[in-house]
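Subject: Predicted fold for Sugar ABC transporter substrate-binding protein, 452 residues

User T.R. writes:
Posting the sequence so we have a shared reference for the thread.
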Amino acid sequence: MIGIPRRALMAGGVVTLAAAMVSGCLQNPNASGGGAGGGGGNAVARGGSPANDKIVTILGAFGGAEEKNFNASLAAFEKQTGIKIQYTSDQDFTTTIKQKVSSGDSPDIGLFPQPGGLLEFAAQGKIQPIDTFLNYDQLDRTLIKGFLDASRYKGRVYGAPMRMAFKSLIWYPKEAYTKAGYTTQPKTFQELQTQVIDKIKATGTSPWCEAWGSDQATGWVGTDWVEQMMLELYGPDVYDDWVAHRIPFNDPRVVKAMDEVGKIIKDDNNSFGGPKGVLNTAFGDAMNPAFQNPPKCLLMRQGNFITTFLPAKVQSNLDNQVGTMVFPPWQGGYQGQPVLGGGDIAGLFNGGDPDAQKVMQFLTSDKFGAEWAKAGGWLSPHKTFDSSNYPDATTKLIAKLAADASVFRYDGSDSMPKEVGSGTFWTEMVKWMNGQSTQATADAIESSWPKS
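User M.O. replies:
I've generated the structure tokens; pasting them so everyone works from the same file.
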């Protein structure tokens, strides 16, 4: 989810090849052993416009102010190189990119809001492996650890991120929270539980500001909770196995993760409004009760994009109105600080075009995005991005929390088959919040997983 969560807007399909993704340590692929589409040699992806025409076409899903800021971030590069970049926005990106590729009218570069489509094209030999035109090791060093794994197919990487969404955040109303003396840096979730959540609950206030309402996409907020808990309890390797269906959705570890989430948010006294309130309140309004006097709830787990949904008065004075912390590690779980997120991933269809390669090199570098960052609403996936470009202390802190993470993992439901990721995972989480047992929920999702 970048900006307004894409899956909240685009409940349509994303075909994924998550099962082909390779888990384990990220390493520089053997450039002579994979080739486009995972085949032998280094075949060149032949899509896009004519090579060396000084025009590079890009198709992406973001428009409006985001499109304006994207183009502003390219202006100096265009002037310096003489390359004209033609960006087209399409809210139905997933459908449009498939149509264009199948008809031989692909753009030079696609900006994928989820990795599934990119992996599908990688399998078809339509996307150029990044190690043929990017300095892979340098890119790996500057990116938040684990980001490239989202674009890995049969051991080779076919895309690189050009912006990030960071989801492993807990928000609170700064004045009320700090006045009460609650810790802002819990070392573990268990410390957050005893030092903050239990103490809030003892005052008669609901600890969690929780809301899942999102029209036909209601339920996606719950999937993020489960994904976070899978990372917290078991780490990236088991998480990858789960997303790729190398372990079933109703594996006992998944059931345990869901049960732990239930202990946190499912009780009537834990989430403001109880389960019915959670399901019937728009996700963007989740934190509104926290700004009442006195607050009705104090904690919200949600991504960095949520600031655009906060009340206008809060947005105008963000640094003084809200605080944020990283979702803390689970005691006895993964040894490290895992974080969950998303991002727009750039993939090169025109593998033999030097102009398109230059644009890819810039788009996926830590030099891209200064203008967008200054305008707000954008995060670089690079640890080495100049944080002075961010417009406020809150965004600077979020960028630092992401950079300090032990490992990053892409939103799991965005990488699962659409029948699950934007289908039963959403709908069954709604039933779960309404009282359906965890085992029945996990069993139903598992039975919906495509057989091939």
